[in-house]
TrEMBL record:
It holds the Pfam family XS. Keywords: Coiled coil. The keyword Coiled coil applies. Residues 15-125 form the XS domain. Residues 158-366 form a coiled coil. It comes from the Eukaryota. It comes from Nicotiana attenuata (Coyote tobacco). GO terms for biological process: gene silencing by siRNA-directed DNA methylation. Residues 394-522 form the Factor of DNA methylation 1-5/IDN2 domain. The gene is FDM4_1. This is Factor of dna methylation 4.
């Protein structure tokens, strides 16, 4: 509408003074004497008449003096060029019917006809109720002065926007710098992790090599000792045979030979034990590798056995109570002592598992706190990015007024935006109301959860009056609030707009790094 009314000021004298904000004067309003003063109709009726004729006034103010209603009214228009166009349109309408200012001043018989014109300098400077009201509520300005003032405001606005853009650019550079630092820090941590893994693997390989070398050395020594003992055995057998053949073996020689044979047998037994030790050492080397690999699985198994231990302890306690009620026999007492000893061992084992479980819980909580801090830092860093990027920050539970405008424009011809703003404001208040809880508990495969109560009266009234789209908009915000915050407030969340779900920290960092790469490529 502004484009159609804009040329209204171009056909007028730019130096002529008008009352600003734009005002018109309607004269010869019907009044009557009620015995005390003159009275007339309120300004709302005249405003409705002028609105129906297409003059679009903001308000109509009847003028009163000490005698009552003066028969004049001031019509106020909006203080933009549309308002000026409507004021000129009103003046020309009255002039076309020969009821302008000149006709009013020059006519002696005005009958019951209304007269109207645009308020200008002579009206502003006049005495009486018209001049008093205009001087109190307006100023004299020419079209050129108003155009110059608009130009100054536009220049100031452009300057402020330029400063804002520059500040946003500086902030973007700061975020890019921070992301670069974070990326470098992550790269450094990953490099240190790779170095630690490499050192650990090298240490394991060294241990395995030393074990193999030691085992090979022991096997070689064993073979050497075995060969030496075999040669000694053959030599002794040969000597024994010679002594038998000669039949000249005396007691001392027999005793010496017997002693040497016993020593040889002991040496062979020692060699056998050494062989068993070598095999046992090889087996231990193999088990050591398996132990290093299965250590974490063993800890997890211990944690899983906690519940089994607790059940076993309860069973043993029950068995103890049963045995105590069975009497004081010797067998019963012995059985009771065995159960109590087993119970004590199980309780000690449970205490160890409790300590281990507590340590793991503390580590898990610390890791969760670190992840939450990293997620919060990532959200704070991405708040300046577009909310419709692939990965961005979403205000969970916030109503989108643009969606309400789309709904109201289909239902209302006039004031659709105003109705959308009013509807959005009302439902934002409902969402923050802690006494309103439109949820029900439903059972799913993952356990019980809260869902929208489809029998809620307030939500059903919204669906009936504004349709399914408005109902979906509000229920989505309700679910987001209920999931993200226990206080039913709006929270910020890292969001994957492509998959319509919460984004992971990895997705957020990958997206920022990709954006930085694209930005650097464009700069080159």
């Amino acid at each position: 509408m502004e484009t159609e009314l804009q040329p209204a000021h171009q056909g007028n004298d730019v130096d002529e003074k008008y009352v600003f904000p734009w005002m018109g004067i309607v004269a010869n309003l019907p009044i009557e004497w009620d015995g005390k003063r003159y009275v007339g109709k309120s300004g709302s009726g005249l405003r409705d008449d002028l609105t129906n004729k297409g003059f679009n006034p903001v308000r109509v103010h009847p003028l009163w003096n000490h005698r009552g209603h003066s028969g004049y009214a001031v019509v106020e228009f909006s203080n933009n060029w549309d308002g000026f166009a409507y004021a000129i349109k009103l003046e020309k309408s009255f002039e076309s019917q020969h009821r302008g200012k000149l006709e009013y001043l020059g006519s002696a018989n005005r009958e019951n006809k209304l007269y109207g014109w645009v308020a200008k300098a002579d009206d502003f400077k006049s005495s009486g109720v018209i001049g008093d009201y205009l001087r109190k509520n307006g100023d004299l300005k020419s079209i050129s002065e108003i155009q110059a003032e608009d130009k100054r405001k536009n220049d100031a606005l452009v300057s402020n926007l330029a400063e804002t853009i520059e500040a946003k650019s500086r902030r973007l550079k700061e975020i890019e710098s921070k992301c670069n630092e974070t990326s470098m820090c992550l790269s450094k941590v990953m490099m240190q992790r790779d170095e630690m893994i490499q050192e650990y693997n090298e240490e394991l390989q060294g241990m395995a090599k030393n074990a193999r070398d030691q085992l090979a050395k022991m096997i070689k020594e064993r073979e050497k000792n075995k060969s030496y003992l075999e040669a000694q055995r053959k030599e002794l057998e040969l000597r024994e045979k010679e002594l038998v053949e000669r039949e000249a073996l005396n007691d001392n020689q027999r005793q010496e030979l017997h002693s040497l044979k016993q020593m040889n047998e002991r040496a062979e037994m020692e060699q056998k034990r050494m062989d068993e030790s070598v095999l046992k050492l090889a087996e231990e080397q193999k088990k050591e590798k398996e132990t290093l690999r299965d250590k974490i699985l063993e800890l997890q198994t211990k944690l899983d056995s906690k519940q089994a231990l607790e059940l076993e302890i309860e069973r043993l306690k029950g068995a103890t109570q049963v045995m105590r009620h069975m009497g004081d026999g010797q067998d019963v007492k012995k059985k009771l002592d065995e159960i109590q000893e087993s119970l004590k061992e199980k309780e000690e084992e449970l205490e160890d598992l409790e300590a281990l479980n507590q340590a793991l819980v503390v580590k898990e909580r610390r890791a969760n706190v670190e992840l939450q801090d990293a997620r919060k830092e990532l959200i704070d860093g991405m708040k300046q990015h577009s909310s419709r990027a692939l990965i961005g920050v979403k205000r969970m539970g916030e109503l989108d007024i643009k969606r309400f405008q789309e709904i109201t424009k289909k239902m209302f011809v006039e004031d659709a935006d105003l109705k959308a703003a009013e509807l959005c404001s009302i439902w934002e208040a409902h969402l923050r109301d802690p006494k309103w809880h439109p949820f029900k508990v439903v059972t799913t495969e993952n356990g019980p959860k809260e869902d929208i109560d489809d029998k809620d009266e307030r939500l059903n009234r919204l669906k009936h009056e504004y349709g399914e789209a408005a109902y979906e908009l509000v229920t989505t915000a309700l679910l987001e609030m209920n999931e993200s915050s226990s206080s039913r407030g709006i929270t910020t969340e890292l969001w994957n707009y492509k998959l319509e779900r919460k984004a992971t920290i990895k997705e957020g960092i990958s997206y920022i790094v990709q954006k930085l790469k694209v930005s650097k490529a464009k700069k080159r």
